[in-house]
Amino acid sequence: MRFFIVHELRGVTTPDSGRMRVRADNRLTRASLETLAGALSALDGVGEVRANALVGSFLIFYKTDASRATVLTLLLGAADAGCKFGAAQAQEQDDDAAASQGLMPLMRYVFVRPLLPFALRVFTSIAGAVPFLLKGLGALLRGSLSVDVLDAAAIGASLIMRDFRTVSMLTLLLGMGETLEQWTRRRSMATLTESLALNVENVWLLVDGTEVSVPLGQVREGDLVVVHAGGSIPVDGEVTEGCGLVNQSSMTGEPLGVHRSEGASVYAGTALEEGRLVIRARHVGDGTRLRQVVKFIEESESLKAGVQGKFERLADMAVPFTFGLAALVWLVTRDFRRASSVLLVDYSCALKLATPLAVLAAMREGARHGMAIKGGRYLEALSEADTLVFDKTGTLTQASPKVVEVVPAPGFDRDEVLRVMACLEEHFPHPVARAVVRRAEEENLQHAEEHAQVEYVVAHGVASMLHGKKMRVGSRHYIEHDEGVDLSPLEDAMRRQTDLGRSLLFMSEEGRAAGLVAIEDPQRPEAAEVVNALRGLGIRRVLMLTGDDERTARTVAAQVGIAEFRAQVLPTDKARIVQELAAEGCKVLMVGDGINDAPALSAAHVGVAMSDGTDLAREVANVLLTQPSLNGLVSARLLGTRTLQRIHSNFVATMALNSLFLLGGLFMVLRPGGSALLHNLTTMGVSLNAMRPHLPPALPEEIPS
């Protein structure tokens, strides 16, 4: 458990007073929250403590610097004491209890069975064998010579030999294997979805100016939903009134709240920390983004890794081999006991159990480390990738561009160039458009809409008429090549700005160059380190794609350590470049975040989207980084590689150990019971090995002491 300061305001009533919001990195139970809030309230110099159970936070009002230090000391002590609060811990306790119950048959076998009369031991052995015999018979009647048939044959052979101890041991170990698989599957899926739980029964609707409480199921699209501070947002929609601080960590992984006001979009499953919002419902029930994410998690298991399918096929192929070998042994030796020893050792159990457990456990671990992996096949693809392709904007950069310089062409006024650009761009959602508008507002330039018909040319710019003049704003390719505008009057400015690694946006008026704005988009601080780390993990080739001209592209690529890049790339070119790389035999890992990246993400061997990317990019991508950092790429590569390595090491261990047990049974070194025990212990061993974590535990940011 860790606590961190979300925000703080000093000088509330006196220079030394203040308030701060502190949040835990795990959800707190209501009882734990109230206990900790009471302890904080009892401290000297603490005026008020407001607890929010939904997001696990406290709003603490303190009077002096000394009381502030005391508050932080108490929270650090609570964290160091290992406060196991919250729903996640409660879920783990339930799962541990279920696992303990699953081990009860082992306890009964070891401690209770030896004390039972012989007749009762025989009865319990036969009763425990019946379900497995029926399952095997059912598979045989369906024409399937599967592992279930093999298990039934092994149990049947032991019954014929009246080896009831072996029968009990077989049913015990098979049952424990099933319990282990079910427990792991249930716990893994619970971990993947626990942060997405939307526990809302009633909501407030605004009807004729009055707030009315209704069940969530009665909310329809278009209804006005009111959410107060501390409440969960139950629908996807648009804010029509009010403002507030919204915690979107369940969607983005970002712990800091974001400001939302009129016109902003909000999503079900997020929480309102402060303020009051009136939201017009756009999607409700199964139509919300939250429900779509949960649905993807529930369906992700069906996307099996190729190696998983290969091992499952090998497991099925091993069953006839085992039956054939047992028949051969009986024909040669006429020793039924030796033949049964062969039946009791097969390769298929471990192969079929350990591989899917390894995949599911890896997906669960990925969720804990900020990666939503949409199926086992993409773990395999992450490990196989040898070529990495980055889209520049929003992936290598932070997608928060700002205008750093405005350069007018001869005969044009600088402020007028910026004002007109802002006028044309103000209705478009692109980050560059917002940067232009923001700069005009900072300079108090009035840019109210004056233009007539306006057209947005995708990935190029804007075409419009202003006071009867043909205006164009956009990329160099659009202005110079598509519109035929001579940009030579701006040549010196273009060279100077691109040498600094800046992107350029041009404006033309009536076919003449009017000016340009230079835009700087800060690089992600971890970008160069991530590129270098991925090379060390086996990525042989790294490319950067950008719509910027060659000088800007070269500067940015050099800063992050990328030697190969493509400049002035159009959206359709991105997918074509990925396809060309695939045709060359490359296994492409594509990283993008925008609408224009979606075709390339689909064309890649595996597509990765950033958490702050567009809805379409996140939907199309095979892997979603739920935290706004490229470091998740390194973790994803490690997870994929290590998962495949473990699957293969489990395969080698299964084949080697079971072959030894098989030889032991053939030469009667091992009795049937011993063969069965060692075989099933091997199966359980490789299964437990499959579930071991691959990555070090994530370390959340702590409060400074």
What labels would you give this structure?
50% helix; seven-stranded mixed β-sheet; alpha+beta; single chain; 25 helices; disordered C terminus; globular; 24 strands; 705 residues; seven-stranded antiparallel β-sheet
Bin the strand percentage. 15-25%
End-to-end distance:
15 Å
Largest sheet descriptor: 7 strands, antiparallel
Radius of gyration, Cα only, in angstroms? 32 Å
Count, helices? 25
Number of strands: 24
Secondary-structure content class: alpha+beta
Instruction: Compute the average pLDDT.
Output: 78
Helix coverage percent: 40-55%
Tell me what you see in this structure.
The protein contains 25 helices and 24 strands. It has 705 residues and is of the alpha+beta class. Strands 5, 6, 7, 8, 9, 10 and 11 form a seven-stranded antiparallel β-sheet that branches. Helix 6 (147-160) runs antiparallel to helix 7. The radius of gyration is 32 Å and the shape is globular. The two termini are 15 Å apart. The model is unreliable at 81-100, 191-199, 252-256, 296-304 and 699-705 (pLDDT under 50).
